[in-house]
Fold this protein.
Amino acid sequence: MNVKYRRVVRACAVAVGVCLPTLIAGVLGYAHEGHEHTPPPAGQTSAKAYKNIKVLKDLPADQLIPLMKSFDAALGVNCEFCHVVTENHEGFDRDDKPTKLMARKMIVMTQNLNKTQKILKNKASCYMCHQGNKEPIVVPPAQKPGNEPGQPAEQPSASGSGEAGSESVSK
């Protein structure tokens, strides 16, 4: 793997890790699960429809909540991870939690990755690094015994014995 490619992959991983929390944090009017949310008027931006939007200002307001839910899924969290949510479902606009502030930074990072790294084809996302975890996954899965780095992984046979090439594929 060449150094340039590694840098791009590492930058993407960091971007995704920043994006999710930032995006989650950027939304102040996020609807709490089980709570009725009145949709904003069509054509309105998030900055006009919700309080304290700092990063996703130009995002159409009707896309904000679905985007927040995608952040939740990418990090395996819920609204309260980044937002202050009171009993009467208020407080989303508050900046009390460090996770919300970090989320904003990660959203900006992911946006920058998508803008500057054409190899990503605008697909950098929070899930790219977080994969359903609160913290980004920055270490590759453990190497399986018997597989040397740079060598193709052993393919299981049709019989499930795990011995590569132990059966003929032709009939």
About this structure: Residues 27-35, 160-171 have pLDDT under 50 and may be disordered. The chain is about 40% helix and 0% strand.
